Amino acid sequence: MKNKRQTAILELIKTHSVDTQELLQEMLADRGFNVTQATVSRDIRELNLVKSMGEDGVYKYRTHSSPREDRQILSETYIPILRHAMSGAEAAGNLVVVKTRTGMGNAVGAALDAMAIPGCVGTLAGDDTLLIIAKTNDAAEKICAELLKTVLAEND
């Protein structure tokens, strides 16, 4: 639950101008995470979020890292989820079909979307299958190989 909540926080601050813990708490509640202000505060600290002035002159929460560091943080957050949920992947043209445990397709899709994998245009998730749409056939092959190497290697 904590990983999912923190993932939601990262997505919220990336897509919305979040300037207070109270607003973040409300936005989390809208997504089904009913948490206390203390929990939000702890998540902010654990995610190393900082408040800084946005382009509109309003202070808002953001990650305290470079885009490369953001990808590393997201990878460290999501790879355990992927390792738990994924059972296989296969490239077909510019598509990658990912098999997951029953009920985990959406979670894997959300994790991969948040990781902003280079060459990935988007994902389409079902109950136990996920479709990754890549820009090119080569990108699909690279994405598939990386998933298999990174995620499934430790399951052997």
List the defining traits of the structure above:
51% helix; Arc Repressor Mutant, subunit A; four-stranded antiparallel beta sheet; 156 residues
Describe the protein.
It is a single chain. The chain has helices at 2-15, 21-30, 37-46, 67-85, 105-115, 137-152, and strands spanning 49-53, 59-63, 86-92, 95-100, 120-125, 129-134. The chain is α+β, with helices and mostly antiparallel strands. The protein folds into two domains: 2-63, Arc Repressor Mutant, subunit A, CATH 1.10.10; 67-155, Gyrase A, domain 2 (2-Layer Sandwich). The protein is built from six helices and six strands, in the order H-H-H-E-E-H-E-E-H-E-E-H. The strands form two sheets. The protein has a four-stranded antiparallel β-sheet. Helix 4 (67-85) packs antiparallel against helix 5. The radius of gyration is 17 Å and the shape is elongated. The two termini are 26 Å apart.
Number of structurally distinct domains? 2
Shape, per Cα inertia axes: elongated
**Helix proportion:** 40-55%
CATH architecture of the largest domain: 2-Layer Sandwich
List the secondary-structure elements in sequence, H or E.
HHHEEHEEHEEH
The tally of beta strands, per DSSP, is: 6
Percentage beta strand: 15-25%
Unreliable stretches (pLDDT < 50, length at least 5) are none
Average of pLDDT: 86
Structural class: alpha+beta
Alpha carbon gap, first and last residue: 26 Å
CATH topology of the largest domain: Gyrase A, domain 2
Count of DSSP H/I helices: 6
Rg, Cα atoms, Å: 17 Å
- The CATH class of the largest domain, by name, is Alpha Beta
Tell me the strand order in the biggest sheet.
Answer: 3-4-6-5
Major sheet characteristics: 4 strands, antiparallel
